[in-house]
Design brief:
Elements (H helix, E strand, L loop, with lengths): L2 H8 L7 E4 L8 H11 L3 E5 L1 E3 L10 E3 L5 H12 L14 E6 L2 E8 L15 H4 L1 E4 L2 E4 L2 H10 L20 H14 L10 H8 L2 E4 L4 E4 L1 H7 L2 H7 L3 E7 L11 E3 L9 H13 L8 E2 L2 E2 L4 H16 L6 E8 L2 E7 L6 H6 L8 H8 L10 H11 L6 E5 L4 E7 L3 H8 L12 H23 L5 H8 L3 H13 L3 E4 L6 E4 L6
Parallel strand pairs: 1-2, 11-15
Antiparallel strand pairs: 2-6, 3-4, 5-6, 7-8, 9-10, 11-12, 13-14, 15-16, 16-18, 17-18, 19-20
Helix pairs in contact: 10-11, 11-13, 11-14, 16-18
Amino acid sequence: MNMKEIRQLLMKGEKIDLEYKEAKNSMPKSVYESYSGFANTNGGTIILGVREDKSALDIKDRFIIEGIVNPKKVLEDFWNTINSSKVNVNILMDEDVYVVSEDSINLIVIEIPRADYKLRPVFVGENPFKGTYKRNNEGDYHCSEDEIRAMIRDQNPDGNDGVVLENFTMDDIDKETLKRYRTLFQTVNPGHIWNEDTDKNFLEKLGGYRKDRRKKVEGLTLAGLLMFGTGLAIRDEFDNIFMDYRDESHITPVIRWNDRVTYDGTWENNLFNFFSKVTPKLLTDLKKPFKLDGIQRVDDTPVHRAVREAFVNMIIHADYLAEGTLKIIKDDDGFSFTNPGMLKLPVAEIFKGGNSKARNPRMQTMLRLVGFGDNAGSGFPFILSTWEKENWLMPELYEDIALGQVTLNLRMVLKEQNVIKKEPKKEPKKEPKKRADTVKEKELEKRKNDILELLRIDGSITQAAIMSGLNLSRKQVQLTIKALCDDGKLTRQGSNRNGKWNVIDKSKT
């Protein structure tokens, strides 16, 4: 980065991955908070020697280059601190920190990468629960205890789903679910020695039942209960996790979805049942070209497999000890998969493949042994290559820091169509809004006002309470809250579970 590039950045202000700090004579203490925030999120850049004039109305006039009087001394102080007990770990290399000079002006640039999941949380001081930060919008925020514990859980090289759940036994397994799984296992693996085992021994070999000799306890593992347990037992231990599938294709302002799979008392809501019920619904409308393997028709295609891979990835990478929903939306353009928990690896590394770091490796094994998912880190590259061969828009994988969740969007839209949609017409004509559009806008404005009123009364109210109080779907609540955040009327402080919403009254600012 050179001075010209820095001046161009100043015109755009601060961002989630860019921070300016004044450091005329010394290193500001807030640098280490930003270091922690960037390392625990997606990385970012700190530029030292820039003063912020908060009274400036225009963003182009807000950040002013002042420079650093003695950059050598400031750099020395920084390295001494970053390698001391001031922070718990140094993830920087020499080339990540450098001086940019022009005439008599000197600035310091610190480029901070995303920390490896084995090193997070990166924190200031000696107590992670007091000194761990994350980046959100344009600032550094203290992480909640839940967010910190999630990072600590992710350090476990053995994953999260092998923990023994005391007092949960084979009586908490839904026998019909396990029977269907074993039938499928026998079909895929005829003659396998496990086929002769009892249910308990079979589940133990899968990683669904375990004896912890050190703690002298035994019982179902997290993987065993969530994959094959009864709905009642699962809700007793995991009332923080929900499963929801909605078909929102061909909807109207009156019809919010055409099909839905969620808790309704008609099925045992474990993960294997959810996967078994929803997968056919996802694939039913996909094209099946006429193809023969010998004399049998082959209905499976790379697109079918890619969609299943996305479903499997959602299950094996979800953080079931956090709060959230395994949510799948099918619409006219494709699919959206959302799960609680942040990414363990950077997006670029996930796209590259070859390095699978599932939170739930036992669930991954359970699905792989009956023909679903990949165990070598090639699942996501396969999704990318399949979408590329179809000439569809590249899949989008992104983290929602505020909600603590990850979403994968698979759009079955041709790249050329997207370009055409984005190109402005030469002579745009103003057309009256369609009645349906007007109705939707009015409904959105009403939802915004209703939700703001609730949040003014109680900023800690849950999404479930908003849904119940206003008779809205989860998607309506989430989209409305996102719109309010985009409008600058709402900000989030803290985690999804323990945080609160702050209503911004612009008339007072």
